[in-house]
Amino acid sequence: MPFYQKRGIIPNKRHIQFRDDKNNLYWEELVSREGFSSIYSNIYHKNPPTVVKKVGDFNPLKLEAWTGTHRHHHLTTHKLNSSGDAISARVPLFFNSDCVLYKAHVNSSMTDYYRNGHHDEIIFVHVGSGTLITNFGQLNVAAGDYVVIPRGVIWQLDVKDSMKHFIIESSGPVETPKGYRNRHGQLLEHSPFSERDIRTPELVDSQSDGPTNINVRLNGGHQIYEYATHPCDLVGWDGYYFPWVFNIKDFMPITGKVHQPPPVHQVFQASGLVICNFVPRLFDYHPEAIPAPYAHSNVDSDEILYYVEGDFMSRKGMEEGSITFHPGGLPHGPQPGKIEESIGNKETSEYAVMVDTFKPLNITTAAQEVDDIDYPASWLES
Question: What's the structural domain count of the chain?
Answer without folding.
Answer: 1
